[in-house]
Amino acid sequence: MTHICEIAQLGNPILRRPAEIITDINSSETQDIIKALQDTLASTQGVGIAAPQISLSKQIIIIASRPSARYPNAPLMTPTVMINPSFQALSNEKEKDWEGCLSIPGIRALVPRYKNILVSYSDTNGILVETKFEGFVARIFQHEFDHLNSKVYLDSVEDNQDIFSESEYFKLINT
């Protein structure tokens, strides 16, 4: 049975609350959250989702880069569930690129993010995983990680002129 949740929208207080650490990965509550995140993300054209976006203040994210109408040039990767994630930048080098968010429909913005990061998280079996991400996948991770820390991508925009309506964004990238 699928469980598709409503996506919390900008202005919902849950998006501005730090998410709680998961203490029992095997609990039915945690497994239900993971399933709801998977089903909800699969029902969208998003490339990632965080538990606060389905109104659950828990440190779980999924990154799932895949080409779509929203992200036509996204690389394809297996959806990855990350519990209690953290990261460190592998250099100070940042790159500005376009982001959107299921919680902020109709808007895109240029956001600076680290290009190369080392990510640590527990997988769905409770095994600690360390992996390196670069480029677009590193961007997705940092975007979703921000949701766990009460931030949305617009908080990281350096200049308000870097914020576009989605219709203007698509005109720009399709020229």
How would you describe this protein?
With 175 residues, this protein is α+β, with helices and mostly antiparallel strands. The chain is globular and about 50 Å long. It has a 5-stranded antiparallel sheet, with helices on both faces. It has 3 helices and 8 strands. The protein starts with 27 loop residues before the first helix and ends with a helix. A hairpin with a 5-residue loop joins strand 6 and strand 7 (128-134). 33% of the residues are buried. The chain has helices spanning 28-42, 135-148, 166-173, and strands at 48-50, 60-63, 80-89, 94-101, 104-114, 116-122, 128-134, 163-165. 21% of the residues lie in helices and 30% in strands. The longest helix is centred in the N-terminal third of the chain and has 15 residues, at 28-42. The mean pLDDT is 96. The chain has one domain: Peptide deformylase (Peptide Deformylase).
Helix-strand layout with pairing:
Elements (H helix, E strand, L loop, with lengths): L27 H15 L5 E3 L9 E4 L16 E10 L4 E8 L2 E11 L1 E7 L5 E7 H14 L14 E3 H8 L2
Antiparallel strand pairs: 1-2, 2-3, 3-6, 4-5, 5-8, 6-7
Q: Can you give the mean pLDDT?
A: 96
CATH superfamily heading:
Peptide deformylase
**What's the total number of strands?**
8
How many structural domains does the protein architecture include?
1
Give the amount of beta strand, in percent. Answer: 25-35%
Q: What order do the helices and strands follow? A: HEEEEEEEHEH
Q: Sheet with the most strands?
A: 5 strands, antiparallel
Task: Characterize this entry briefly.
The chain is of the alpha+beta class and 175 residues long. It is built from 3 helices and 8 strands.
